[in-house]
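Fold this sequence, please.
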Amino acid sequence: MRKKMLRKKCILLLFSILPVAFGAFAQERPKVGLVLGGGGAKGFAHIAVLEMIEEMEIPVDLVVGVSSGAIIGGLYAAGYSPAMIKDAVLDLDWPSFFLQDTPVSPFKNELDAGDLFLSYGLEKGEIKKGFSSGQIAYNLLKKLTSKIPSYLDFDTLPIPFRAGVVEIPEGRVELLGQGDLAEAIRASFSLPGAFDPFEIGGKLYIDGGTMDNLPVRQARELGCDIVIASELWPHPENISASPLEVPELMLSLYWSTANADQHKQADVVLEVNLHKYSLMDFQKSHEIYSLARNERGKLRAELEKIKALLASSINESPQAAPRTLPGSYAELPFLEPVSLRITGALARDRAYIEKFFFRLIKGKPLESVTLEDFIMRVYETGNYRFVALRIDSRRGETSLELLLHPESQERIVFLFGGNYQGTFSRDSINKISMKGGVQIQGISGQGSVLSLDASWIDTLSFRLLHFQPLTPQAFVTGSAEIMLDKHVTISGFSLIDAEEKRLSLISGELKGGVLVNRHSVFKAGALFFAANFQEPSIWEDNGGDERNSALGFGISYTYNTLDHLFFPTGGTYVGLDNRLYFPTPFREPLLFDILSLDLQRVQPLGLGFSVTAEAFVGSDLSNKLCGLEGLPAGFSVFDRQYFPNVTGGEIYYSHKAAASLALQFQPWKNLSVLGGQLLFSASVSAGELVNELEDFSFGNMTWAASFNTGLRLKNNFGLQLRIGAGSEGSSPPALFLAFDLGQAVRSGITPRQ
């Protein structure tokens, strides 16, 4: 214990002594300030500027950063070398910075509408503050600075640092010089509309670039004798009237004009020609950095002026200007928290949070992965719009301070999306449905949700669901749904040969669940359905009409570590489901027992490649389901996961086994800063559906082999095009083209509960 205390005191002493040493050296020469302007993705060019400054051994006594300049400058001031900064930021998942990350509910996966394509939220009658709370962005910054304690004077960093922000609603420009480094950087790039304003000490801050994008004058006021300014918005050399380039042109003209007075106060203004890149081109990080690095000659010529100024001030030649390197962040030890203070927690969450603190953190080195895991466990309760974590070492021992900003208790979310399923082959099918819904959150306490959603066109449905959390890990839900589904299969190109099936379904359920951990959930409950199954002709309404109903009880367990539900590139999925049905009115057979196991493993191979293996096994253990004609329960051959070539046929079977294997390639991490991933794959799948186990036969398997292209728009929403060949049962093989748009749907027991 004494050794730990001694090490912590040494860390604090290190941060205290470094600036004193630099200050003593600074008295022998002019104080040099480095101002890194804002500019979104253009900020990657600052790394090349830092490389040249270090290569030329130019000392830096103060770093002032704004927006993306605060990210690069803050890491440099904390002891990151340019090489370390490059490794840390060029390959970050930048789209996660800007994506909407506010949980829809404490148990988002239980709300089937959680990943509809569009969502729009209202809080107490007002539009929510920003597209994103910025939680994921904060997490990334906190991981990168986890060795730096909070409540710090930024003058005690290896290089003194300031982050440019604007306080609202006053509109006052400030340079943050103390507190938590990750919070100061996060506040500096709180772009209005994209992020919530960031709160520090009861004040709200937005992106410093909204009012002062290159604060050279403030650097002078902080005592800098020489100022180097890195400008990301030079005056445009060519004027383009292209509609696609006008927004960027306007920004360049505005900031180059607005910064003109600041340029006059700088000794050197470093400019790189970045006009062809926009402030949102984060996916082009390597290109922007490389372009700036290729202008080393231009940067060197400008920085030689600084060398000359330094040399003349200390009466030495330009080549002899001394350089004191900052302390290395990599050499700092991890802090070891021994206590936790919580501010803003709901009463029911406090014990849950403390449990994970004692399990994950107390008395252990606070590594970046552990820190993020702890923050996300609290954030994923869904009860807090933002979670901040401070590391307090002021009293000799390290403690954590958790600052929670509760989510609005009364919030309305509107959701909208759609689904399309189409296959063109010997037989063809087109199914389209639009989906919409509204969720009233907090209606019966924090985390509760009353959800009403509907779909229309080929599937007409209305569903009412109430979700009520009991603890941070337990919940109950009740739902009722009315659905009318139409399934039309066309043979060839003639409607005369069309076959239509209709299913009318009324269902309800009441279930409870427990989150075993972040990846596992156990559910159990009662369910009911009443169905009317019809097979009329398209032109004649004299087809079959089967009516059945049943009560049931179901239990399920799900383990899911997939990184995405639509086209995952890594992780494992295990789903185990068991349901007992009792036909009503009660008759023979008295019950039937359906069990299913759903498995998926996605193994990354590197270079954008991954292998996906899937399997599904389901069976009516009672072997009595096939005796109840027209009962829409069991397993369907219409399965877009395994058999995209199948368009119709007998819908429900008692037993099912299917497997698939796919090689997947993702050429680019993201198509834009707002996400969107393009993927290609080649896959083969095969399976069999029967009513009697003895009927299983490899010779009559349904199979499909295809080349696939997918575009993932959200975690569980995207589009997929598949071209290949396959056959259903004993039918001869046929070419097919399949197209799907909407949410990913897994194989399972029908009806869906």
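Residues 16-27, 316-326, 537-543 have pLDDT under 50 and may be disordered. The chain is about 20% helix and 40% strand.
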